[in-house]
Amino acid sequence: MKQERVPVLVVGGGYAGLSAATLLAWRDVPVMVVERHPGTSIQPKAFGVGPRAVELLRVVPGIEEELAGIWAGIGENMRIAVAGSLTDPDPHMIISDEQEEFAFLADLTPAAMVGAPQAEIERVLRVKAEELGADLRFSTELVSLEEDSAGVTAVIRDKDGDRIVRADYVVAADGHRSPLRESLNVPTSGRGPLGQMCSIMFDADLSELVREREVTLWYLRNDVFTGVIVTGTGVGAHVLGVNLAEGESAADFTEERCVELIRLATGRPDLDVRVLDRAMIGIAHLVADTYRAGRVFFAGDAAHTMPPTGGQGGSTALQDGCDLAWRLWLVLTGQAGPGFLDTYDAERRPIGKLTADAQLADLGARMPPAARAGYPEPLEDPIGALLGHRYHSTAIIDEPGDDGSILEDPRVPNGRPGSRAPHVVLDWDGQLMSTIDLFGSGFVLMAAKQGGQAWMDAGRQVKERLGVELTRLPVDDELLDVDGRFLERYGVSGGGAVLVRPDGYVAWRSPEADANPAATLERVLRRILSR
Predict the structure, then answer these.
(1) Which of 2, 39, 65, 228 is most buried, judged by most C-beta within 10 A?
(2) Residue 236 pLDDT greater than 70, yes or no
(3) Please, what sign has the CA dihedral across residues 436, 439, 443, 445?
(4) Do 450 and 495 form a contact (C-beta atoms < 8 A)?
């Protein structure tokens, strides 16, 4: 049997798998993706990508522009409501105008939210991954996996038969049923299966019901069914998701019944409808009890399965893939020790649970009051879940007195370790940019002009001594703080410094000057990198 060798094997070609492959290939790490389906998704699936996921993806040249182009081709605004149908005279509006609702984000990030379906975004990621050299194999399934002290041996199967793949690490992005998670006996916690939904993609003229250049996402509750309708998705045209009632199965959703349900959902009993595709989707609330099993790392739905309410499942999966990519890169290139990979579970699993619980709460809030028993309460401030996640692990040097919170208000950036590095506008040789644009390739050491040279010299010494990718950036006359916000938003004085990780999170900071910056920085990096 033919044997192949690759540092990272990714199982699953959805959001988590494709984002991991794209960001690994961008970092010149050879990666193979095996996906049992013949291509990327046909159904729109998740709709919309949050700004944090866009921040992580935009390091790949051209990808942000392509995502923005998809959204520009679909619409400009989005409304979200709870109603009986699209013609409900009194819908409960959750978001009435996306641009106005999230206008404040422009002060917090250069990355915009992208209103686009998963199918379109997957296609962009597939093309980018292949352009960067990733080996993507569709119509290929994982047959078996065995681990030893030096790596993993996988048997994969395509139309030509079986072959062996030897890899250092595996990214298990194989969906909410995750055969890998099951085979490795990784337990899960949560409310469990919540039902099934039939996703009906259809074409119809809804111009009388939806404003031009607007996507409408309405959670539907009426006497016949509950579900969701998304108009103007850019794939097919529109999608209706219908929750299966007790005793129903896929066989009940004939084309005739789908047409009837679409007409009920739109409130137009004579609507001319063409059904394009039907698919069954499982809805559940599950989080893996660990995101790591030896050399296998779980991402996306394999790590956390959540109801679609809240719209953060897709973004969370994308973040998982991007997050794994930079950690694996550090270890595979010898910059970090193998123990560093434990930080993936320590940091991402609490966020996965928080997000899954929040979406379960949102599902309960959209139910009739009598059906909400046992559901958690929604987040008091859902904006924190967009850009306010905090991490705690050995890859973060918490400051004394840290409260251990995993959410904070991103509208009040503070630059403390474990937080996303704040957005500050900079002028670099006449070009305006964000501090967010500085992160992605490696670690970044930033210091203000006063006392900054000592930190820059320390960074050079430590970079050479440890062989770590470290960019040194003094915020001074060349890298100009346009609005004078750097010191305040990063919580340092003129003599302090901040160390930011490749994922744009603050790993450590020295609020003030240090008597021996080189020794301090080396000690910090050794601890962070498990060396």
Answers:
(1) 228
(2) no
(3) negative
(4) yes
Contact (Cβ atoms closer than 8 angstroms) between residue 190 and residue 285: yes
To the question of pTM greater than 0.85 for the whole model, the response is yes
Q: How many angstroms separate the CA atoms of 234 and 212, rounded?
A: 13
Q: How far apart are CA 36 and CA 13, in angstroms?
A: 8
| Predicted confidence (pLDDT) per residue in 443-466, tens digit | 999 998 888 899 999 999 999 999
What pLDDT score was predicted for residue 46? 81
- Cα separation, 428 vs 214, in Å, equals 37
Q: Are 338 and 530 in contact (CB under 8 A)?
A: yes
Q: For position 372, what pLDDT does the model report?
A: 79
Angle at which helices 452-466 and 517-528 cross, to 10°:
50
Q: Has 15 been annotated as catalytic?
A: no
**pLDDT attached to residue 275:** 95
The DSSP 8-state label assigned to residue 385 in this structure reads H
Give one DSSP letter per residue of 236-294, joined into a string.
SSEEEEEEPPTT--GGG--HHHHHHHHHHHHT-TT---EEEEEEEEEEEEEEES-SEET
Q: How many helices (H) and strands (E) does the chain have?
A: 13, 25
DSSP-assigned states of every residue in 65-86 = HHHHHHHHHH-SEEEEEEESST
> Which of 457, 460, 462, 452 is CA-nearest to residue 496?
452
Distances (CA, A) of 312 to 65, 169, 288: 21, 27, 17
**Which single residue is written with the structure tokens 């690759």?**
6
Q: Which of 15, 169, 219, 391 is catalytic?
A: 219
The candidate with the shortest Cα–Cα distance to 12, out of 172, 202, 216, is 172
Q: In the numeric block, which tokens belong to residue 154?
A: 């996988």
What's the rounded Cα separation, in Å, for the pair 299 and 292? 9
Strand partners, 284: 193
Q: Is the dihedral of CA 504, 507, 510, 515 positive or negative?
A: negative
pLDDT tens-digit readout, 272-287? 999 999 999 999 999 9
Do residues 75 and 215 lie in contact, with contact meaning Cβ atoms separated by under 8 Å?
yes
- Burial pattern 258-278, b for ≥16 Cβ within 10 A else e, equals bbebbbbbbbbeebebebbeb
| Spatial contact of 358 and 385, defined as CB atoms under 8 Å apart | yes
Q: Which amino acid is it at 452?
A: G
Question: Measuring CA to CA, how many Å separate 181 from each of 176, 297, 350?
Answer: 9, 9, 18
Task: Give the helix/strand (H/E) hosting 55.
Answer: helix 51-57
DSSP reduced 3-state for 406? coil
HSE-CB of 160 using CA atoms within 13 angstroms: 6
> CA–CA separation, 340 vs 331, rounded Å?
7
CA separation for the pair 318, 338 (Å, rounded): 23
User: For residue 106, with 0-12 CB atoms within 10 Å meaning exposed, 13-18 middle and 19 or more buried, which class applies?
Assistant: exposed
Under the phi-then-psi rule, with left for phi > 0, alpha for psi from -120 to 50, and beta for the rest, what region is 516?
beta
